């Protein structure tokens, strides 16, 4: 049976909103991870079959097929194509899935998969709102077909996070304790150098070298308690939500033939990949259904998985997922998650997988499972096996 392998994975530091990476052009930001990946693996770039990058809000610096542009900006061969995909928050995780599927089909041997997002330059949901200046309505929720099927209801990630907190009886205090733990874990990971191997430092135009994630904060339960809810009368505050930020990430996915022909040393095997949909109004519950599906397909249990990455879009999302599936918190996001480290939407999927791979190697674990909630009520699941 054909196999798909992760040869290597790399990312930039995650820059906080308005921080060190805010003025870096999205194509250059993505090119940085791609160039580092090629250099680290020693692969012949001319042998790469395709470049697949996740990116949302593909306007401005992210428009014009940023995957293709980034490859060229990196100074790599112009016969190698690139394609940009949007599965919302799961875009670069889906990029890995498409890359692996190309390899598993036997039609490709070497594929670069990754993602990029400069949220400082292009605000979240900018693409949904840009049409208004030309007299167009906002997307999907105002579509007559959508309204006929789902009703005239406000579709919002904040409302979804609130609905989840209410349904699973997750208190504001529960979420704030979760958020504080995310920051504590992230700061400890940085202090111990756990991210050093996966980060390719960025040298800015003025010579400043950025080599550390910028988002983790010194915070406390007392500080969090003083914040106002994002939805009036609700439980969700900015303290329990992922941070807006800037980053890129990239992985090299290879077939057995590609590994043999190019003398590559794979670090992990992709054991499983799948994606499922759930209620789009609830939106953020997808990881529950998707994880159940993945475990059923593979015959694995929660106990078989050594480490989990479940994206911290909001604390309530991960807490509900843990409760429904019986996932122990001490195996989830052990180096912090999006609340502390940021959620650079298009880049998050491969950022999480890069961290998961390195942590499996550090701890000697075998299987790692990654999932994340995505716009439209979707969720990808990838299970990787350390080699």
From TrEMBL:
Protein name per its UniProtKB record: Acetyl-CoA C-acetyltransferase
PROSITE patterns given in the database record: THIOLASE_2
Keyword set, alphabetical order: Acyltransferase, Transferase
CDD domains: thiolase (cd00751)
Boundaries of every Thiolase N-terminal domain copy: 5-256
Molecular function (Gene Ontology), one example: acetyl-CoA C-acetyltransferase activity
Residue intervals of the Thiolase C-terminal domain: 265-386
Superkingdom of origin organism: Bacteria
Pfam families reported for this sequence: Thiolase_C (PF02803), Thiolase_N (PF00108)
EC code(s) of this entry: 2.3.1.9
Entry's family note: Belongs to the thiolase-like superfamily. Thiolase family.
Presence of keyword Acyltransferase: yes
NCBIfam families: AcCoA-C-Actrans (TIGR01930), PRK07801.1 (NF005865)
